[in-house]
Amino acid sequence: MSQDVDPESRPRVVLGVGGGIAAYKACEVLRRLTESGHRVRVVPTEAALRFVGAATFEALSGQPVATGVFADVPEVPHVRIGQTADLVVVVPATADLLAKAAHGLADDLLTATLLTARCPVLMVPAMHTEMWEHAATQANVATLRSRGTVVAEPASGRLTGADTGKGRLAEPAEIVELARLLLAEPTALPRDLVGRKVVVSAGGTREPLDPVRFLGNRSSGKQGYALARVAAQRGAEVTLVAGNTADLADPAGARVLRVGSARELRDAMHAESAGADVVVMAAAVADFRPVALSDSKIKKSGQEPAPIKLTTNPDILVELVRARPAGQVVVGFAAETGDATGDVLHHGRAKLGRKGCDLLVVNAVGDGKAFEVEDNAGWLLAADGSETPIPHGSKTQLAVAVWNAILPLLDSCARLE
User: Fold this and answer.
1) Which of 38, 101, 207, 409 is deepest in the core (most CB within 10 A)?
2) Superfamily name with CATH number, domain 7-184
3) Is 313 known to be catalytic?
4) Hey, where are the domains in the chain?
5) The pTM is what?
6) Is there a common fold for 7-184 and 197-416?
């Protein structure tokens, strides 16, 4: 979002900050939101200010910070802040905050704001595993979700002290991506994949030539990660099989398996997809690999190098389609360019026929499109012959469009069963 846009037209975001050690990460969320052109008002709890001072939030947001309902009384902030917001994001949402929000308590400025907000509300939990899994917390989360609040799935990893487990705050970049998604599409994250097992592949494969070099491609893995992120936040049990992904942070709520070559990806996808409801092959798999792998680095000799003999890699998508159990939905991706024989859609239609999957997402690539960028566009081609354009937008928005197209196929399979 350009900084030249009229300030009054910029989305108003309220960033609530709870009293947990993860409060320091709210500063990075705030920085990313303000730098992308959003107007952000930080509303911390008193406990949050024990971790990060008000001056830090004021300096980063350019807005005053208060915690109580008696600050600036003539402006009635405990009502106005929520009424005028386009989005409320709470980072971190502690067990205490989730409980207060679920029960409608309003004993400070943040909880009062949550009661008056009529915009999308995104609560991003962070707490120890035992607190997250406690029946009281789970009941509060269920209550909030039933009212339309988006309570994000927490990540797994290092917690306070030496503890590890589920309950870690999602990474700031992921939080901001979810916030941007809800600003664009407020109903993009329903809990409609609960009970579904999903396997997604992402990133590019690397085929080694010698201990130093490899054949690869330009895939960053961002689209596959977006697909896994959206599925996890919509309630699915997600396994992400990741090739080379440029050090992307694991999507919160997803189990991540890392692979290198096409054959490693093939083995992992076959093993993981056996009991899945949906398999999405978003990885950019190398079509070829060297016939021979040199045990030592191939040196320059002053002469022309010997040609590298290649062999064809297995077609993983075709294999998955042939091996799928009844009722499983399989989705493929195709990165295409036009040529003398046809345009992008022509090649996409031909690929759908060869692969036999239920849906094929076709992306035009080249000239800054699809690979190594934040946005994407394309077409959804279905086995029934329908074709749906996906407008240009973030890769997370494209992921939402794909999952929206998958849901009717799952419902159809359930009826057939």
Assistant:
1) 101
2) Flavin prenyltransferase-like (3.40.50.1950)
3) no
4) 7-184, 197-416
5) 0.91
6) yes
Instruction: Provide CB contacts within 8 A for 305, sequence distance 6+.
Output: 298
Q: Output the CA–CA distances (angstroms, integers) from residue 191 to 107, 147, 222, 232, 280, in the order listed.
A: 30, 12, 22, 9, 19
Overall CATH class of domain 197-416: alpha beta
Q: Describe the strand order of the beta sheet including 254-258 as a list of residue ranges.
A: 254-258, 237-242, 197-202, 278-281, 329-336, 359-364, 375-382, 387-394
Q: How far apart are CA 12 and CA 21, in angstroms?
A: 26
Residue holding tokens 């419902």? 411
The per-residue pLDDT string of the chain (417 residues; one tens digit each, 9 = 90 and over) reads 444 555 667 899 999 999 999 999 999 999 999 999 999 999 999 999 999 999 999 999 999 998 876 566 556 456 788 889 999 999 999 999 999 999 999 999 999 999 999 999 999 999 999 999 999 999 999 999 999 999 999 999 988 888 889 999 999 999 999 999 999 999 999 999 999 999 999 999 999 999 999 988 878 899 999 999 999 999 999 999 999 987 899 999 999 999 999 999 999 999 999 999 999 999 999 999 999 898 888 888 778 888 889 999 999 999 999 999 999 999 999 987 777 777 888 888 999 999 999 999 998 765 655 455 678 888 999 999 999 999 989 999 999 999 999 999 997 765 555
* Angstrom distance (rounded) from CA 389 to CA 404: 13
From CA 318, how far away is CA 312, in angstroms rounded?
14
Q: Which of 240, 327, 231 is nearest to 277 (CA)?
A: 327
Annotated binding site for CTP: 287, 297, 314-317, 333, 351, 355
Per annotation, catalytic residue among 140, 217, 363, 376: 217
| C-alpha distances in Å from residue 234, one per residue of 68, 72, 141, 182 | 34, 39, 14, 13
